[in-house]
Amino acid sequence: MMTNRQALQRLKADIQLRGLSRNTLDSYTTHVGIFLNHFKKPIEKLNEMDVRSFLGHLIVEKKLSPGTVNVYSASIRFFFAVTLNRTMNYLQIPRLKRPKKLPEILTRNEVAELISQTTNAKHKALLLMAYGSGLRVSELASLKTTDIDSASMRVLVRGGKGQKDRYTLLPESALFALRDYWRKYRPKSSDGYIFPGIKNVGHITTSAVARAIKEALAKTAIQKSVSPHTLRHCFATHLLEDGLSLLQIKALLGHASISSTTIYLHLANTTNGITSPADNMPQKFVDCPL
Known about the structure:
Keywords: DNA integration, DNA recombination, DNA-binding. Site-specific tyrosine recombinase, which acts by catalyzing the cutting and rejoining of the recombining DNA molecules. GO terms for molecular function: DNA binding. This is Tyrosine recombinase XerD. Helices cover 52% and strands 3% of the residues. It starts with a helix and ends with a helix. A hairpin with an 8-residue loop joins strand 2 and strand 3. The mean pLDDT is 91. The radius of gyration is 24 Å and the shape is globular. The protein folds into 2 domains: 4-92, Orthogonal Bundle (DNA polymerase, domain 1), CATH 1.10.150; 108-267, Orthogonal Bundle (hpI Integrase, Chain A). By secondary structure, the protein is mostly helical. A 3-stranded antiparallel β-sheet has the order 1-2-3.
């Protein structure tokens, strides 16, 4: 009989054999571990009805978001199909439909206000890189000195989502902020990280990046929820407003599909200079009282 610990070790090995990311490894092992601990019975006796019961528990009692429940579902499906080598009727374990809500973004003036309120040189460099290069927070945290190409003004993003490398923009303002931070902090990372973690071990955590943004936001009058990913959305939206094509933005963001990039068509202010047909009606109809 396989213990929970043995099962999780095997799950870890299955993920590593497929070359999946560290984030996937941590996510799958954590969520499957919670699933296994929820039931007080041998793994061999768990079935799709238990999975349904557990997902229902997450939805009704824990009130988790559809996105979070779907991560649990994907983790458990992988565990059963790969680690346990057991077939299941996945029609009995449907994915939750996620509401298509547009993300909240900042105006250019609000981005400028947020960054201007950041007096800490390290935090300013983080915020300018997040907005100016459109990086995911994990990509920002794990940047290395060798990733910065000041000659061509590009940033090499290594092992992004899907383990794909790409280049994105390096703004002059961000390069200036990086150099200022480097002069003041003189970070010493044996692994070459630009933003080392505590005592120069590893790199800065994603939660530390989020805290830096939260501290800056508290000093502004902005009444919006802002996260590191908000600045990535702002990067893409403002580029689209400036005339960049969706294909160019897709490449800079590292999206696997153009469908992920089309959301910025709904966020960008593309109505400037466009006249509504209501304003082009014959004047005699417009002047008539309604």
